[in-house]
Amino acid sequence: METSNSTNDPTDPGAWERLGDNTVDNFRIFQVRRSRFRHLRENRESEFIVIDANDWVNVVALTPDHEVVLVRQFRFGRHDFFLEIPGGMIERGEDPVVAGVRELREETGYEGTAARLLGSVHPNPAIQSNTMHVVLVEGACKVGPTNFDINEEIETSLVPASRIMEWVREGKITHSLVLNALFFMNDWLETRSGPSV
User: Fold this and answer.
1) Cα-to-chain-centroid distance, residue 181
2) CA angle 167-170-172, nearest 5°?
3) Which terminus of the chain, N or C, has less C-beta within 10 A?
């Protein structure tokens, strides 16, 4: 049994205890399960649908000229092209930083001199159980060819880091998890040089 964190404040939302799970189906990149919970204060039970997927990584790669490495690719959910940063699924047990360096190299052919974890977010905790990690790679340079997955076709471009938030405001970058990553990048840049981006 698994219970959520809660306080004794009667105005707080009530905690739930997870009673059990049943897998509905496996869709290659994620599984769907029915998860039964009991509300501890009201002693009532409800069933919820949860999507289990591997954790993800998004990579903010900065070149020596202080440019951000961007990728443009077709996204089937919206049936359109999107401007993003490199990223992908983390293999089970793989370190997020190692995964980020791998995804950057596979999708763009870039490698850097330093990589670190900037932060982590939960993409949609209402229905998803996974975490998305943001990795920063500094000194990123093109060192070799790309190694795309079978259905990947990716165009790489560079944009000055000083202009990236302008592109966000103009609606050129709209992928929500990429926006999360750029928020972390912008915060990191500000702590290094003061507000300028």
Assistant:
1) 7
2) 60
3) N
Query: Which of these, 110, 106, 111, 192, lies nearest to 149 by C-alpha position?
Result: 106
Show the 3-state SS of 106-124. Answer: HHHCEECCEEEEEEEECCC
How would you classify residue 50: left for phi > 0, otherwise alpha for psi between -120 and 50, otherwise beta? beta
Residues 6+ apart with CB under 8 A from 33: 21, 22, 23, 24, 49, 50, 52
Residue 133, Cα to own-chain centre: how many angstroms? 5
Stretch (H or E) spanning 68: strand 67-75
Spell out a b/e string for 6-41, using b for 16 or more CB atoms within 10 Å of the CB, else e.
Answer: eeeeeeeeeebeeeeeeeeeeeeeeeebebebbeee
d(CA 173, CA 180): 11
> For residue range 158-188, what is the model confidence (pLDDT) as tens digits?
999 999 999 999 999 999 999 999 999 999 9
| CA 140 – CA 78 distance, rounded (Å) | 30
1-34 pLDDT, tens per residue?
A: 555 555 556 667 889 999 999 999 999 899 999 9
Alpha helices in 20-129 (DSSP H): 96-108
